[in-house]
Design goal:
about 350 residues, Rossmann fold, seven-stranded parallel sheet, phosphoprotein, chemotaxis
């Protein structure tokens, strides 16, 4: 099946490069290329593409404002392709929080504009084409009464010692919703989000600015304290935990696990081993199955385990895999997950 792509890019040179390189992929067809948001809006409306690649800095409406309009009016998988994303700045984090599936950097080399590995962009487009958004205006499904947490706040004795979260495609948007519901004095929380390391600092900054707890990148041997959320740096190191009386972050180099480095499975397995039943594991939207086995390990140790439901996932792959293993004790919409993590189960 051919993946139909619309390119929105103000630079004629970059439009030509994108069209030329993507046209060499046998399963990708560039059906149109627009120079600005107004042209892009018309092309998306008329051609209904599978994926849109979108520049950020354009005349008239900029790419981020246009992205917000797309996600409100005609949700479509969007990949940001822009020089503005190269240094991992806040533009990238905002794009991901608005619902962009991924971000791809273009760079200046020699006399002309070139892309980094164009094969990676093609693979991003293939992955993005599999994303399915809930229909606009569709309400989140009701959570079965048996799975709704009571409103009673957990006592200190019942409070989890640590929370571990895994996410991938669509995860930055989901994390912003989830962490906005976290209390400022939440238990120490660790996150593995599948993201390029150049974008991780910006994601941490954006989440920190918009959520009650302090959110930062994890560092080796960093003590894990209440009111703090620690995001994996996204480089070639797995994130786990160590310690007994007091906990600390562990970052170690290694091979990919479940296809990823860092891996959610590694984080969850480490939490299962060190914290056991005193932990909460949360698996959010993402492609593939990373985190499913680790969440099962946490469940088998008695931890509370939660998976995001299909209706509110950008991609249901990771939660689906965990549910099929029986690893998720609760399945809930993204807006209800914090209530399950911080309240007594019914």
């Amino acid at each position: 099946m051919t993946i139909r792509v619309v390119i929105v890019e103000d630079s004629p040179t970059m439009r030509a490069i994108l069209m030329n390189r993507l046209s060499k992929e046998p399963d990708i067809e560039v059906v149109a290329a627009a120079a600005n948001a107004a042209e892009g809006r018309q092309m998306i409306r008329e051609l209904d593409p599978d994926v849109v690649t979108l520049d950020v800095e354009m005349p008239g409406m900029n790419g981020l404002d246009f992205l917000e309009k797309i996600m409100q009016l005609r949700p479509t998988p969007v990949i940001i392709v822009s020089g503005a994303t190269q240094q991992g700045n806040d533009t990238t984090a905002r794009a991901l929080a608005l619902g962009a599936v991924d971000c791809y950097a273009k760079s200046e080399m020699g006399q002309g504009m070139t892309l980094e590995d164009s094969g990676r962009l093609a693979n991003m487009i293939r992955s993005a084409s599999k994303v399915r958004f809930a229909p606009r205006g569709a309400p989140a499904p009701a959570v079965p009464t048996s799975r709704i947490a009571s409103q009673a706040r957990l006592s200190i004795a019942d409070r989890p010692r640590l929370i571990a979260i895994g996410s991938s495609t669509g995860g930055v948007e989901a994390l912003q919703i989830l962490l906005s519901d976290f209390p400022a004095d939440c238990p120490p929380t660790l996150i593995v989000q599948h993201i390029n390391e150049r974008f991780a600092p910006a994601v941490a900054r954006t989440l920190d600015q918009n959520c009650p707890p302090r959110i930062q990148l994890a560092e080796p041997d960093m003590p894990l304290r209440e009111g703090n959320v620690y995001l994996a740096p996204g480089d070639d190191r797995h994130l786990g935990i160590g310690g007994t009386t007091s906990l600390h972050a562990k970052l170690r180099r290694g091979e990919a696990v479940s296809g990823h480095l860092p891996s959610v499975d590694v984080l969850f397995s480490s939490v299962a081993e060190v914290v056991g039943a005193q932990a909460v594991g949360i698996l959010l939207t993402g492609m593939g199955s990373d985190g499913a086995k680790g969440l099962l390990a946490m469940a088998q140790k008695g931890a509370r385990t939660i998976a995001q439901d299909e209706a509110t996932c950008t991609v249901f792959g990771m939660p689906r895999a965990a549910i099929s293993l029986g690893a998720a004790k609760v399945v809930a919409p993204i807006g209800h997950i914090a209530r399950h993590a911080f309240s007594k189960a019914a």
